[in-house]
Amino acid sequence: MTETTEIIELLKKVPLFESxxxxxxxxxxxxxxxxxxxxxxxxxxEGDESDSFYVICEGRVNxxxxxxxxxxxxxxxxxxxxxxxxxxxxxxxxxxxFVMTRDPCxxxxxxKSDFKKLLSSDVMLNLLMELQRRLREANKxxxxxxxxxxxxxxxxxxxxxxxxxxPGVQIREKLTHQEIASMVGASREMVSRVIKDLTSDGYISIxxxxxxxxxxxxxxx
Length: 221
What we know:
alpha+beta; Jelly Rolls; Arc Repressor Mutant, subunit A; 2 domains; 4-stranded antiparallel β-sheet; 42% helix; elongated; transcription regulation; DNA binding; coiled coil
C-alpha cells in the first residue's frame, strides 16, 4: 500500500471528507503530510498565525485557552478521525486556542494554501455543519460555567464523559484532579474537595484513576 493510498483510507473515516469521491480524496491525499508527535507537545498556541489544518489518525489532543489569571481551561478533547485548526484558516484570524497532545499522536496535516483549494461544496457544507455543532457545544459549556457551581460542573462533566446519566458506568479515560479542574474552570483544590465528597457519599468510586458512577450525581451541595 502506497502512502497516498494509506492516507485516502484514513480520510474516508473522517466525517468531513466522507461524501467526497475517490478522485477528490486522491486530490486531498496528494497534499497531506503525516507527522508523529510525542505526548505533551504544543502543536500551536493561542494567538499563533494560522498555517495548517490537522486530522488526528492516532492519539488524543486537548484544546484549551488560558484565562486572565493564566489558568488553563480545557474546552474539548479530540481523538482519532476528528480534526482541528479549520476555523482560523477560514477567517484568517490568529489561533483562538492552544492545542496540546495528550498522548503520542499521529496527525495528517494540510497546509493553509492547499486547504483553501480543497474546499469543495461538499466539504464546505460538512465543515459548516461541524462548526455549528461545535458552537452549540461551546455555548452549552459557557452556560454551564456561568450558572452552575463547581459540584454541578463536575457532575455534568462526569456524565458527559460517561456518555450516560445511568449509574454503574465507568469512565474509560484516566483523569487527574488537575485535568478535571482544567475542564470545568475551577481550582484543583476545589475539585479535590468535590471528588472527596462524591466518593465518601457513595456517588462515585475511583480505581487506578478511573471513575465509576454508582448513583445519580448531585448538581449542587
